[in-house]
Design goal:
Layout lengths: L1 H35 L3 H14 L4 H13 L3 H14 L4 H13 L3 H14 L4 H14 L6
Length: 145
């Protein structure tokens, strides 16, 4: 009888763990679909739920940052980008977004520093670094003698 009880408890734990794992990935996948459909409020809620299940889900934080950028909520955008970079300092897209944020703030020295680091980690977005640096050249105040 004890073996049957232990087996039932073990089976219960396995089923619950499996459901927990499936729910976590389902929230992110469903949120991504809503994001692609431009249903930002619904996707924001689902990305936040995904984070509840997995606080280290850097992709959910990244998409939340994109949503907050669209909503022009700079504070929340920055907070989520910072979290992505805390979880994965080499996240190429988050580094690029951070360069854009600093460029808008006219923090040119920070953009230059980020661009140097970006060139070391970029795989897919390398061409965008050139765009940022070109924008930086066009925006920096000219030294007139």
């Amino acid at each position: 009888m004890k073996k049957i009880n232990k087996l039932i408890v073990l089976l219960f734990i396995i089923v619950n763990f499996t459901n927990y794992s499936l729910a976590e990935s389902n929230f992110f996948e469903e949120a991504k679909i809503k994001y692609d459909e431009k249903k930002y409020e619904e996707s924001k809620f689902l990305f936040q739920r995904s984070i509840v299940f997995n606080p280290k889900d850097e992709n959910s934080y990244l998409y939340l940052a994109k949503i907050y950028n669209f909503e022009e909520n700079k504070k929340e955008e920055q907070k989520n980008i910072d979290t992505v970079l805390l979880l994965d300092p080499k996240n190429e897209e988050a580094n690029y977004i951070l360069m854009e944020i600093e460029l808008k703030r006219t923090n040119y020295s920070k953009v230059r520093e980020l661009a140097e680091n970006f060139s070391k980690i970029c795989n897919k977005l390398c061409g965008k670094e050139d765009f940022i640096l070109e924008s930086l050249k066009n925006l920096e105040p000219k030294n007139e003698s």
